[in-house]
């Protein structure tokens, strides 16, 4: 299986284990926010529900791009939103855009500091994040 898919699946497993109500039944039409995510695949419902609730957003309007890699910066955003909710936005204290998310995730001990936030998350990153979320 492609590393990007593994990272994506694990990140959504992390989020779905933290969130309450992800297993709830939603109106299929209301929960369908991404046109490129099939409703009948194993991860489709989780992505649609998390998108409907505002925890994840797509690459473009109505497009999730499930085959894309996920960066360490994007992982930080997902982890912080999982802990504090989809409306939470950390105070921007520096550039680039993702640094405040990474700083918050590190401060909350959700992840270790990252060097280059644009680097795709590795299996080791995802495993470490899963371990930290379980602490």
SSE order and pairing:
Layout: H1 3-18, H2 28-31, H3 44-53, H4 72-84, H5 99-107, H6 123-134
Helix pairs in contact: 1-4, 1-6, 4-5
Describe this structure in words.
This protein has 135 residues and is mostly helical. The longest helix has 16 residues. Helix 1 runs parallel beside helix 4, helix 1 packs parallel to helix 6 and helix 4 packs across helix 5. About 5% of the residues have low confidence. The protein has one domain. It has six helices and no strands. Helix content is 47%, strand content 0%.
Mean pLDDT: 75
User: What is the multimeric organization of the chains shown?
Assistant: single chain
* Classification by helices and strands: mainly alpha
Task: Report the total helices.
Answer: 6
Largest sheet: none
**N-to-C SSE string, H for helix and E for strand:** HHHHHH
User: β content, as a range?
Assistant: under 5%
Question: What best-fitting shape do the alpha-carbon axes yield?
Answer: globular
Low-confidence stretches: 17-23
Query: What is the domain total for the residues?
Result: 1
* Terminus-to-terminus distance: 28 Å
Number of strands: 0
Q: Portion of residues in helices?
A: 40-55%
Task: Report the radius of gyration as a whole number of Å.
Answer: 14 Å
In short:
By secondary structure, this protein is mainly alpha-helical. The chain has helices spanning 3-18, 28-31, 44-53, 72-84, 99-107, 123-134.
Salient structural properties:
globular, 135 residues, single chain, 47% helix, mainly alpha
């Amino acid at each position: 299986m492609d590393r990007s898919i593994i990272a994506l699946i694990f990140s959504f497993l992390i989020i779905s284990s933290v969130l309450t109500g992800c297993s709830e039944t939603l109106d299929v039409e209301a929960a369908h926010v991404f046109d490129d995510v099939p409703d009948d695949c194993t991860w489709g419902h989780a992505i649609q529900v998390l998108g409907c609730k505002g925890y994840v957003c797509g690459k473009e309007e109505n497009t999730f791009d499930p085959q894309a890699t996920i960066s360490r910066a994007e992982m930080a955003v997902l982890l912080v939103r999982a802990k504090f909710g989809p409306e939470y936005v950390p105070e921007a204290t520096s550039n680039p855009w993702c640094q405040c998310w990474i700083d918050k995730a590190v401060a909350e001990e959700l992840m270790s500091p990252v060097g280059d936030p644009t680097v795709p998350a590795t299996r080791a990153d995802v495993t470490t994040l899963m371990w930290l979320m379980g602490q």
